[in-house]
Amino acid sequence: MNPSTPRADILGSFTGHIRPVKVKPTYQLALAAVTVAMVLLPLLYLGLIAATGWAVARYAVDGLSLFDTVSNAKSAFFLYSTPLFVGAVAIVFLIKPLFSRRLDDAPSHSLRPEEEPTLFAFVEKLCREVGAPTPTRIDVDCQVNASASFRRGALSLLSNDLVLTIGMPLARGLSLQQLAGVLAHEFGHFAQGAGMRLTYIVRSVNAWFARVVYERDSWDAKLDTAAKEASDVGLLIWVAVQAARGMVWLTRRILWALMHVGHAISCFLMRQMEFDADRYEARLVGAPTFAATARDLSLLGAGQQVAMNRLSETFPLGHLVDNVPELISVVRGRFEPDVVTEIDRRRLEERTGTFDTHPADVDRERSAGLETDPPAFRSELPATALFSDFEGLAQAVSHRFLEAQVGDVLAKTRLLPAKELLALTDQAEGDRETLERFTGGVFDADRQLPWPPAVEAEALARARDAMAAGLDRYRTALGDWQEIQRQLLRLDAAGEVLDAGHSFEPSAFEVDAATQDGIDDRRRELSDRAAPIEAVLEDHEGALITRLRAAVDALDAPDDGEARAERDRLLPALEAVNGGWMRLRAIDHCLSVLRFVLQQLTEDPAQPGDRVLDLVGELRRHLAELRSAWSCPCPFDFQSADGTLGEWAVPRDERSLDWPGLFELGEQTLGRGYETRKRLLTRLAALADIAETRVGYGPITEAESAGPAAAVAAA
Q1: 435 Cβ contact partners less than 8 Å away, ≥ 6 residues apart
Q2: Which residues, other chains included, contact 58 with Cβ-Cβ below 8 Å and sequence gap of 6+?
Q3: Residue % of the chain over a pLDDT of 70
Q4: How many other CB atoms are found less than 10 A from the CB of residue 350?
Q5: DSSP string spanning 287-300?
Q6: What pairs with residue 414 in β-bridges?
Q7: Residue 81 has pLDDT above 70, yes or no
Q8: Considering only CA atoms, which of 544, 532, 528 is closest in space to residue 448?
Q9: Partner of 293 at 20 to 30 A CA spacing, among 254, 397, 648, 700?
């Protein structure tokens, strides 16, 4: 907390008391009805299990008569055992959701009263004003949200054992008055004991039904595997397994219906609870502040989306941010006025649907606007004033959040201040735009582009003219080439499946027959199609790389010293990357084939077949070769320690990894390798743009003819 903001000043901002929000008798009746309904739904589910079990048991006894009425013993056994098998599978799949584990919540950081005395005193005072129980624990996390919940779940239902979770981005982006209103809303849910407990039951039941309907686990995978293998065993086994799958599908549809029934009967009540909690917020801070908070929460949510996108861009390069709340706040502050207007327009155009659990903002603001009491809390302070060391706490919470996202890799990642990280993404975005202008918007960084020897200055104009003349043809050819590569990759995977001794559906790999001859015929057809396409691509890309070489060689003006230094640093790295490019492509190919093979083969992933292990061995060798080939220094500030580009691209010793760990390393290497190549080319394009701009060249387009470029060069 800022030393100039004593706790007494914050607590003295409470200027009045909040009138309790009274509920209507109709609301209390709805509360009772929903309570009964939400209890009945799980009972119906248990009844379904009991009924299925009874039916299977009854059939196990009565079905024995089949052996007396059916003369063929094999047919009698099939007719008797198949319904038992189907029923048993259905019971297993009905029972296993009862033991489904809830997914872990987002990582949070628990605070202690002696560390944050002002925050705890503020929350205690706020709870007294709202008439809600004081939480026994306060957590903070990196979400643009706040919540109050039972600390131990169902075990706390009969007590007031609550935990308050405050999203640090809220404290960073809202005023103290706004954050007080948000917390009053959360505590408003708990100001009414019956309502808060019903809310927990409703949300828990609905969330449980959603999980068991949509989530899949190893049991589902085993049933799917059995269905694939059954066709090789015999028709009768296949029929039994398919019948079992059909029964599982039927039980899930029943659960789906129960889920929607529970959701439908609870929607009205859940929306009413939100309206009541909003009234607490409006009475504490006033209706105008309520509306302003709704708008700011929308903008912070948009800022969070952009911030996460920025982190996904910088993570492959070894960079993350040291303060996620600050990053979100800075991103939000950089929104242009027209972006802010558009976000707000969309928010206010949303309408509350019949099955929505939360009202639309326009309805919430209208309801809150009916509250005319003077605000019971007024403050001009920022919400960060509640914390003794907000920035230090935000960094600690950010570290925990990022560690949960990327694991041990965080220890080898450079954490940058928000503005520095955004400067990197801004530069990368600007470079991408430059590359798009330089190439006419058509480019595939995965193509092999060997760096040419020195060229004469006049080659620049000719290369530009050649690119402009062939741009449209190149665009079409590139799309065709990419599609051919996709199909060739599938053929490689099909061949691996056959080599492993398994069959496959021809349509899965786009061949006429699931044989080696069928694969070879299709491969020859694609190769014949690719030959003229490859010629078009090589002509255009030859002009592109010649133009790039001529332009960066032309950086000879007195003011180009910094550009020349960067060029001289990038070119050795590009040469090394090109030298190892086919190894990176081999890693990509190996991983892609492995994905297809693992999807088609039926081995337990923990016990891969021999062919999978062979592919893994190839991957291990390619990774080692790439690390050795990329022996040049890192051309960019990719890592926190000095090292070669290969050591950065392949950051772990592949010899010590099992095959899942090796697969993960390969994926990481691909991301870093391709990003390095793209960054090299985009930076070189940015340097080339400096030279071209000096002589008056603009972007390459299909409309450009040879004449203008030659005329500019001559001038």
Answers
A1: 443, 681, 682, 685, 686
A2: none
A3: 84
A4: 14
A5: HHHHHHHHHHHHHH
A6: 319
A7: yes
A8: 544
A9: 397
676: how many CB neighbours lie within 10 A of its CB? Answer: 25
With CA atoms as reference, report the closest residue to 356 among 295, 300, 273.
Answer: 273
Q: List the structure tokens of 73.
A: 């013993």
Instruction: Tell which residue, 382, 378, 384, has the closest CA to residue 1.
Output: 384
| CB-based contact 700:440 (threshold 8 Å) | yes
DSSP letter assigned to residue 106: P
What is the structure's pLDDT at 3? 46
Q: Is 158 exposed, middle or buried (0-12, 13-18, 19+ CB in 10 A)?
A: exposed
Residue 98 to residue 212: CA distance in whole angstroms: 9
More confident residue, 654 or 266: 654
Residues 6+ apart with CB under 8 A from 145: 165, 167, 170
Lookup result for tokens 């009772």: 32
71: which 2 tokens?
């003369």
Nearest Cα to 204, choosing from 257, 252, 259? 259
pTM over 0.85: no
C-alpha span between 609 and 601 (Å, rounded)? 9
- Structure tokens belonging to residue 441: 């918007």
Please report which confidence band the pLDDT of residue 216 belongs to, taking 50, 70 and 90 as the band edges. Answer: low
Structure tokens at 499: 């080599």
Instruction: Flag the least confident range among 235-244, 320-329, 549-558.
Output: 235-244
Q: 3-state class of 263 per DSSP?
A: helix
What's the half-sphere exposure (Cβ side, CA atoms, 13 Å) at 709?
23
**Mean pLDDT, all residues of the chain:** 83
Q: Is the dihedral of CA 204, 209, 212, 213 positive or negative?
A: negative
Q: What is the pLDDT of residues 422-442, one digit of tens each?
A: 998 998 888 888 888 888 888
The DSSP-derived string for 124-172 is HHHHHHHT-PPPSEEEEESSS-EEEEETTGGGGTTS--EEEEEEHHHHH
Strand partners, 633: 644
Least-confidence region, from 84-93, 119-128, 533-542: 84-93
The answer to whether the CB of 501 falls within 8 A of the CB of 610 is no
Indicate the helix (H) or strand (E) that contains 471.
helix 459-499
Which residues are CB-contacts of 353 (< 8 A; sequence separation ≥ 6)?
Answer: none
Nearest 5°: the CA angle 97, 99, 103 is: 90
* Tokens (6 digits) for 121: 């005193």
Residue linked to tokens 């405050």: 166
Residue 271 and residue 352 in contact, taking contact as beta carbons nearer than 8 Å: yes
